[in-house]
Amino acid sequence: MSFTLEDRWAITDLLSMHGHLVDDGHLDRFEDLFTADVVYDLTGFGQEPLRGVAALRAAGWALGADNPVAHHVTNIVVTAETDDRARARSKGLGIGADGTCASVSYDDVVVRTPDGWRISHRTLTPRRTPLGGLTGPG
After folding, report:
1. For residue range 49-78, what is the model confidence (pLDDT) as tens digits?
2. Confidence at residue 7, expressed as pLDDT on a 0 to 100 scale
3. CA distances in angstroms from 137 to 24, 121, 131, 134, listed in the order given
4. What confidence score (pLDDT) does residue 24 get?
5. Ordered structural domains, the chain, with CATH
6. Is the pLDDT reported for residue 22 higher than 80?
7. Edge-to-edge strand order for the sheet containing 101-113?
8. SS3 sequence, the chain?
9. At residue 22, what are phi and psi to the nearest 5 degrees?
10. Mean pLDDT, to the nearest integer, of 94-109?
11. Model-level pTM?
12. What value does the mean pLDDT take over residues 124-138?
């Protein structure tokens, strides 16, 4: 088996599906996106990483009305590591109910499972300063 163009498409679809499922309130379908033991790293937001789909689902429900009303994933770049493992980097935009907008970078490890590609590790990095905080060449 080898990493194919179809694998890239499947991973891109996987990352794109996240926003649809969350925005539609289908947190019960997180197994379609994540491995059962997923690590969802929120340390960039001053929080401990969430471990496992159940913890991720509970956190989503606990946020309730503070969840963004729209998640948009863009600029997906997939890099194969092996036939069954890849890294994906993408940008995320979240739109709040009050119209505010926030940006993150997603750094994902995706793995091939018997049910298809799933995210096994996701790191969210908030984007708060232009140019990644750099002020000049160097």
Report:
1. 999 999 999 999 999 999 999 999 999 999
2. 97
3. 43, 32, 11, 8
4. 96
5. 5-128 (3.10.450.50)
6. yes
7. 50-51, 34-41, 116-126, 101-113, 85-95, 70-82
8. CCCCHHHHHHHHHHHHHHHHHHHCCCHHHHHHCEEEEEEEECHHHCCCCEECHHHHHHHHHHHHHHCCCEEEEEEEEEEEEECCEEEEEEEEEEECCCCCEEEEEEEEEEEEECCEEEEEEEEEEECCCHHHHCCCCC
9. -65, -50
10. 96
11. 0.94
12. 89
10: tokens are: 């499947």
Rounded distance between C-alpha atoms, residue 19 and residue 25, angstroms = 10
| Location of structure tokens 């009303």 | 69
User: Looking at this protein, which amino acid is placed at residue 74?
Assistant: T
The confidence band for 111, taking pLDDT boundaries of 50, 70 and 90, is very high
Burial-class residue 15 by CB neighbours within 10 Å (0-12, 13-18, 19+). buried
Distance, in Å, from the CA atom of 93 to the CA atom of 103, rounded to the nearest integer, reads 5
118 token code pair: 């799933």
